[in-house]
């Protein structure tokens, strides 16, 4: 469960990113956050795994405050959260398998991961993750040899190898064509349904949100202007 309690985020230059957000997301939900560019979608997602600190309030993840967590506790909470970005964030010159294995980093000592000494179990988990998104045949291909859609599927596999319980996807299809967009959204949906991974996706198209979300959160100027089942969302949420 993810809980926002009176969460505000003001950037150092004074811009208000989020203004007093209160909401709860239950395990297994497929939530799409919609809103125009600059509405606060990304600020909201980045607050959940504390890619940045919030200015006020608290965020609770599965009963633990990520806002107050330090050191190992923070790492342990973060290990449950996989992040997917618009630009994939892969190591371009590494193989697909190496990129997916990097999802295992949080489970081992730094030295072990610097040396690239991942146990067999990690390789198995990574190959299974690639199988789930149908690109196991690309395991030994360099990441930058893949199409955008394939690269995004690799980043989904990385979150699966991480054994994430929550996936945060920040505009995951913004740089993809319509067909590839559907393939990536289908993968996210399938994983949500098969594995029960709580999924929160930022999108700026309400039509796409309607197709995939079970719940839509509409944001505007840092505030929640709609929060409810997809069927109740109007075009101007
Ligand atoms: P969205 O993801 O919906 O496009 P963002 O969360 O990125 O919106 O941005 C919300 C608001 O915060 C916008 O006004 C944006 O300009 C501002 N903002 C985002 N990141 C920063 C930053 N690092 N410094 C200052 N302002 C920022
Ligand atoms: P997807 O179904 O993921 O969109 P495409 O149909 O675009 O994939 O790609 C088909 C094939 O072309 C893939 O095997 C991919 O590796 C290759 N390919 C696509 N884009 C590039 C690129 N920019 N550089 C090298 N190979 C590419």
Automatic annotation (TrEMBL):
Coiled-coil stretches noted in the UniProt entry, renumbered to this chain: none
EC assignment: 3.6.3.28
Entry keywords, A to Z: ATP-binding, Cell membrane, Hydrolase, Membrane, Nucleotide-binding, Phosphonate transport, Translocase, Transport
GO terms of molecular function: ABC-type phosphonate transporter activity; ATP binding; ATP hydrolysis activity
Domain ABC transporter: 2-237
PANTHER family: AMINO ACID IMPORT ATP-BINDING PROTEIN, PHOSPHONATES IMPORT ATP-BINDING PROTEIN PHNC
Record's protein name: Phosphonate ABC transporter ATP-binding protein
Gene that encodes it: phnC
């Amino acid at each position: 469960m993810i809980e926002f309690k009176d969460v505000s985020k003001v950037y150092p230059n004074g811009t208000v990113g989020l203004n007093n957000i209160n909401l709860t997301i239950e395990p297994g939900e497929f939530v799409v956050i919609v809103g125009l560019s600059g509405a606060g979608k990304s600020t909201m997602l980045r607050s959940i795994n504390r890619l940045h600190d919030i200015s006020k309030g608290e965020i609770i993840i599965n009963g633990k405050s990520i806002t107050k967590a330090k050191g190992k506790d923070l790492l342990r909470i973060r290990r449950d959260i996989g992040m997917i970005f618009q630009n994939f964030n892969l190591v371009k010159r590494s193989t697909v398998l190496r990129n997916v294995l990097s999802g295992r980093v949080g489970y081992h000592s730094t030295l072990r991961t610097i040396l690239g000494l991942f146990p067999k179990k990690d390789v198995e988990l990574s190959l299974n993750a690639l199988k789930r998104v149908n690109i196991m045949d690309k395991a030994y291909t360099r990441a930058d040899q893949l199409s955008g859609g394939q690269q995004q599927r690799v980043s989904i596999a990385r979150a699966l190898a991480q054994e994430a319980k929550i996936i945060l996807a920040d505009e995951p299809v913004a740089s993809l064509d319509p067909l590839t967009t559907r393939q990536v959204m289908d993968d996210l949906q399938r994983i949500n349904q098969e594995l029960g991974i709580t999924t929160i996706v930022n999108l700026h198209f309400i039509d796409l949100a309607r197709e995939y979300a079970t719940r839509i959160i509409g944001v505007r100027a840092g505030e929640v202007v709609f929060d409810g089942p997809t069927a109740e969302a109007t075009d101007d949420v």
